[in-house]
Design a protein that fits this description.
This protein has 315 residues and is an all-beta fold. The chain is 3% helix and 54% strand. It contains 2 helices and 14 strands.
Length: 315
């Protein structure tokens, strides 16, 4: 019988398209208000794999130098349809250090609900009894508060920051035994530059970007590191996920996947697709991961008061 299991928060290859999930300080970091959604299907070759979704909206209130946002997530995993649903409200304050440098501080407060479908599971005593009722301890739905914070520093063509999630370490146990969600720390950043120097302000000029996202939760950690090319409406990127040379124990290297990303933009709409090609010992059995993102910007930036904004890959 399995008495204990370990898991981490859901993750997204296009983490820059889920900014408030990455860091609460991103709330309102865009020039205009934005509505966005991400859908990730992980390990589609395995029956009842993982499906994760985010729906978010945020806006910047220039009169008070603050951004605000709402975010809802849903994650379903496994045969028992272990489901985690969250809802949160986020606020971030923007502090302009000088004409080119700014700081942002964010707070996020919300809740999560976890549940499992017992009827979809088969226990050992059911097999021994030929399908009879199980005497296992019945699980329960769990609803608990959850809090996060983060900070960003950015200027022109670069940005960096960190975030702390699950500050209160909420109890997410479905059984009688306590199971406190461990604190998650993430460190992230990026740098962009123009290839066509003579057309720095031309929307069709070519850009290159590098970006990373390191996260650590309990004894597990992982790094996303990638580069990204954009020209006009087209965006293409390649990512590596893992930590080279690191092993959790013998035979278990920290290698996960290579990720290919393509994005298109049209007026205020942006769409992205990414595919994760598994390179761990699970390769050939999981089917990798497919991820889609879409966002809509609620105004034209040129009509808003100009200010320093966070420069990230722009799907």
């Amino acid at each position: 019988m399995c008495k204990q299991a370990h898991s981490q928060d859901m993750q997204f290859t296009q983490y820059f398209q889920a900014p408030m999930y990455l860091n609460p300080a991103f709330a309102g970091a865009n020039v205009c208000g934005r509505v966005s959604s991400n859908l990730r299907t992980q390990w589609p070759s395995i029956s009842n794999g993982y499906t994760s979704q985010i729906i978010a909206m945020d806006h910047y209130f220039s009169d008070i130098n603050m951004g605000g946002g709402l975010m809802f997530t849903n994650d379903v995993a496994g045969t028992g349809r272990l489901k985690t649903t969250t809802g949160s409200v986020t606020g971030a304050y923007n502090f302009q250090v000088n004409r080119t440098l700014a700081l942002r501080f964010g707070l996020q407060a919300g809740f999560f609900q976890r549940s499992v479908d017992l009827n979809a599971l088969t226990f050992g005593d059911q097999i021994a009894k030929g399908g009879g009722s199980t005497q296992e301890t019945q699980p329960r739905n769990v609803i608990a508060p959850d809090f996060a914070t983060g900070m960003l520093v950015y200027s022109g063509m670069w940005w960096g920051g960190f975030a702390l999630h699950h500050l209160n370490k909420p109890d997410e146990a479905l059984m009688a035994i306590n199971a406190f969600r461990p604190l998650k720390f993430s460190l992230h950043g990026g740098k962009s530059w123009y290839i066509d120097k003579e057309s720095d302000y031309d929307k069709n000029s070519r850009q290159m970007s590098v970006t990373f996202n390191y996260r650590s939760q309990a004894k597990y950690d992982q790094l996303d590191l990638g580069t990204y090319y954009s020209k006009g409406a087209l965006n293409i990127g390649i990512w590596y996920r893992g930590i080279p040379l690191k092993h959790y124990k013998r035979g278990y290297p920290n290698h996960d996947s290579f990720c290919l990303i393509i994005g298109m933009s049209k007026d205020r709409f942006k769409m992205g697709y990414s595919y994760d090609h598994t390179i761990s010992w699970l390769r050939g059995t999981t089917g990798g991961a497919h991820e889609f993102s879409i966002s809509y910007q609620m105004c034209k930036p040129k009509k808003k008061k100009k200010r320093t904004v966070v420069i990230c890959p722009k799907f």
